[in-house]
Amino acid sequence: MSTGQRRLDIEEIGGVTVARFVDKKILDETNIQNIGNQLFALVDEDGRKKIVLDFSIVEYLSSAALGKLITMDKKVKAAKAKLRLCAIRPEIYEVFEITRLNKIFDIKSTQEEALDGM
Question: What pTM did the predictor assign?
């Protein structure tokens, strides 16, 4: 069984792992499963300690996708690692505000800001 296509572009910038989403709309259950697995592997398998999730391409995020982000946050905290989100469009940020997830996540406007002080 294939583990699905890569849904994240992973880049190392000065000791920080930058994961950029490759899908404009994160809706499809299988896709979300793949994204979750790839995100969790960064912590569980690769032991990455500094992770920035770049949302610059993302136009739509389903609630199931938010669930994966919450799980990711828990994994990161359990591993004493750091997680930041960046480049979230206003319409998606609104969802973070409504769900109060903007209080849970460390969200920065740009990738540069997210990398700063990691």
Answer: 0.93
- pLDDT tens digits, residue range 7-36? 899 999 999 999 999 999 999 999 999 999
Q: Which two tokens stand for residue 111?
A: 């990738």
Domains of the chain, by residue range, sit at 8-115
Residue 117 falls in which region: left (phi positive, over 0), alpha (psi -120 to 50) or beta? left
Question: Residues, the chain, total?
Answer: 118
Two tokens, residue 46: 């690769």
Closest CA to 58 of 86, 88, 102, 36: 88
Longest Cα separation, the chain: 40
Please write the tens of the pLDDT for every residue from 35-70: 999 999 999 999 999 999 999 999 999 999 999 999
CATH number of 8-115: 3.30.750.24
Distances (CA, A) of 55 to 1, 12, 45, 80, 84: 28, 16, 23, 23, 11
